[in-house]
Amino acid sequence: MHHLPRRRIAHSLFLAALVGLPAFAQVDFTGEWSPLYHEDGPERLPGPELGDYTELPINASARMAADTYDADRISVVPEYQCRPHGGDYSMRGLGNLRIWREIDQNSQKLIAFHTHLLAWDSERTIWMDGRPHPPDWAPHTWQGFSTGVWDGNMLTITTTHLKINYMRRNGVPRSDKAVFTEHWMRHGDYLTVVTVIQDPVYLTEPLVRSDNWYIDPGQNIGIFGCEYAPEVPRPEGTVPAHLPGQNKYLHEFADWYGLPFEATRGGAETLYPEYQKKIAPEYHPPAKCERYCKCTSLFDCNVGSK
Amino acid sequence: MAHVQGNVYVLMGDGGNISVQIGKDGIAMVDTGFAPLAPKAMAEIRKLSDGPIRWIVNTHVHADHTGGNAEFAKLGMTRESVGPPRIVAQSNVLNRMSSHTPGQPKIPEAAWPNDEYFLPTKDFFINGEAVIVYHVPHAHTDGDSLVYFRKSDVLATGDVFTPEHYPFIDLARGGSVQGYIDALNKIIEITVPAKYQEGGTLVIPGHGRLCDEADVVEYRNMLTIVRDRFVSMIKQGMTLDQIKAAKPTLDYDTQYSAGIVKTDKFVEDVYKSLTQKVSASK
Questions:
Q1: What is the pTM of this model?
Q2: In chain A, what residues touch B213 (CB-CB under 8 Å)?
């Protein structure tokens, strides 16, 4: 009998083991994740100021929708009381996140990632098995339909079939024709999610934002729960809205922060560094901070009053 | 043909959406599309059922929803048929189909509704579930019906709900913006979402994708807000041209005006609906 050297046997066994390995995901995002609010904290926690459309490449349609939006709608229209964030806005992290994997028992291949968010108990499936998105006539949902592909160790997710929702909670809308792209990057105990919204109805350019999360193994996400209850007497079918040109609150943001009004109106031009130079002569910040001076959590955002 | 839920399926293509309920008793349909497309549509239905068509409900008079009536009545006959299908519609649909408009081809009698109703509702039972037909007056037209498959929890709305384009207010046939809003509120009253405003009652619109209550709410909100703006401008004495120049629907144009009802037509129809008397039914 011919005996192979031990080194060759070990090498052959190692190669055989590699060939037999199933295709594991490059990165495991599984875990309990706590949102970090050092980025865009005031907008994401207590909420955006009325009339603040900065950083949004919106068009005139979106601007008018936001100008005429009345937040009373959330309480007066019963069907809005339990209306969740869309799958895109959910990733702005109002609430804690759980991610887990679904693995095929036979092949040990990754079928999907699943997410659960505190807000409205929202759950989403991110399909990793190459399945196509549904046809145009399929129903839209709050979380949409998501598929993911690996780009090295970064997971790129594409979501379609989202219901009408918002890009910002002061009335800036997001249409049901939008495509939502995310890039998930895990670096140790941190998860960075870069999001891109392309909306042919309301945006002139893609809206790019980012949010960060920190692993929190002790996290215990509770039940959100919501039941609508009409509490405001009003005629049936009332939909609160400001008439065009009648919203008297739109200048508040500019006045409080010393900004020229035009700079608060959003639009692609206002996103770029050159715009800072353009408005510099008209920018007069207040002598001392009076609003959102310290804002690292929902409970320490102190909002001054004028 | 796509499964909606329960016993209900939908055919989508040229012409209006066609809802099909299938079971051991046979077939019930809501709307019949254009006449030339009926054989192809019937071939799709026959993949799921070889039973007779027992009931056809027309949601309104327009040809893209009633054109296939006669064809389906013929194609849907089998050995089990006890007669032609009952073609249900609100009485104004029969009135309009049976009266001849000069310059338009006559609609053959075989296509007319033969089971018209004039009370607020009509109902029947097929394939283990109640089917309730609600009249919603002076909405898209003066003869609109909503059709609710109670056990399947599916509501077919006809053209009182078209999520992908502005409403077509058929003023000449008795449509009105207030009636449209009332009809959308009726849909919201009937539908019940499963959880957090999603799922539950599924809605088959006259044209466009499958929806649920939340989608109808957005459409109702749009139309209510637009109506409120027009009421305010009309009270100020603005003319139609002045209203058009003010662009009162700018925030919705990019969402809804790509379809068959463009902004100018929508603005004109809303203005006329609010300033003129609703057209009398025939």
A1: 0.92
A2: 79
